[in-house]
Amino acid sequence: MYAGYGLLIDSELTLPDLARDAAPGAPPDVVVRLGPVAPPTADAVLLPLGLWVDGERIGIDVPGVARYSCSGGSLITVQPAPGASDDALRLFLLGSALGCLLTQRGLLVLHGNAFVVDGGCAVVLGHSGAGKSTLAAEMHRRGHLVLSDDVVPVDAAGRAVPGWPRIKLWQDALDRLGLPSSGLDRVDDRFAKFHVPLDRSGSLLPVPVRWIYVLDRYDGPLRVVPVTGAAAFVSLHEHSYRNEVLVGDLRRTHLARSADLARTARLARVDRPHGVDSVAASADAILADIRSTTTPGAPSGRRAIREEQQHATRPTRAVGA
User: Which terminal CB of the chain, N or C, has fewer other CB atoms within 10 Å?
Assistant: First the structure.
């Protein structure tokens, strides 16, 4: 049994990225099984990127890797393609498939990174290649606890649920941060992208989301611009993880969760100049914006997490409502 995102996961595929469950005997929240996956029916909604929604199932077809089926927020079935490696199976299982399953469980799943500062959670959003993970690594280097990389689930109470204790970084990002790649596991043998473990221990509680920053590029100096009103909804939808599957009831739940989060979190856009390596400057700007909106005397990120953990009696599970 494994533990991750506040869930207990019983998986037939080994998941070394996840922590082993410290309370054996508890019933799993999610079951992962290897076996045949029925193709989408004639009533299914076929979507881009190999995605489909068929009643209570969300399907993901990854050529040369596997067909995944997420059912009812509690079961993921994986049908491997001939010759697919376990690493490739895990890559899409812990990314797209788990992200879709968390959406089925009623969470608002964002495509970004989350870190703790001043007792709250800041979420950094952006399209692939925007530099989210590099920025998260910079925040970690500065002493801020990173909750999640790539997939950030937000529960009904507006709290970010912690994910795996690692960040995925390309070789050039490691070079900029002065981190060696020797000894690191590759995300995929075909790419120079690596799993960078985070030095955190113990179970973390969900942390209230207080700030959301969307990384963007433009022709001008670095700036932080507040985003409000309808634009906030557009940003949250645009940067939701696998937003293609947000149809029917899933879309209605997403809109409700987005409205709740927009009321309690500050959302801003971080405009960065084209062609400039602005990781450190972006971190400076985000932290300055957070300081300008933080109540004086709030405990620091690591201290706040420790204080919350002292009052916890059992791990919090990621459930919908």
Answer: C
C-beta of residue 169 within 8 angstroms of C-beta of residue 196: yes
Give the Cβ contact number of residue 160 at 10 Å: 29
For residues 49, 54, 56, 57, the Cα torsion angle rounded to the nearest 10 degrees is -40
Q: Which residues contact 148 (CB under 8 A, 6 or more apart)?
A: 113, 114, 160, 161, 162, 163, 164
Separation between Cα atoms, residue 70 and residue 58, nearest integer Å? 5
Burial of 119 (0-12, 13-18, 19+ CB in 10 A): buried
- The residue behind tokens 């599970």 is 317
pTM: 0.84
CA–CA separation, 225 and 277 (whole Å): 19
Mean pLDDT by 10 residues, the chain (321 residues): 87 84 78 96 94 95 96 96 92 92 95 90 87 85 87 93 80 75 71 70 80 91 91 91 91 91 93 82 93 60 44 34 30
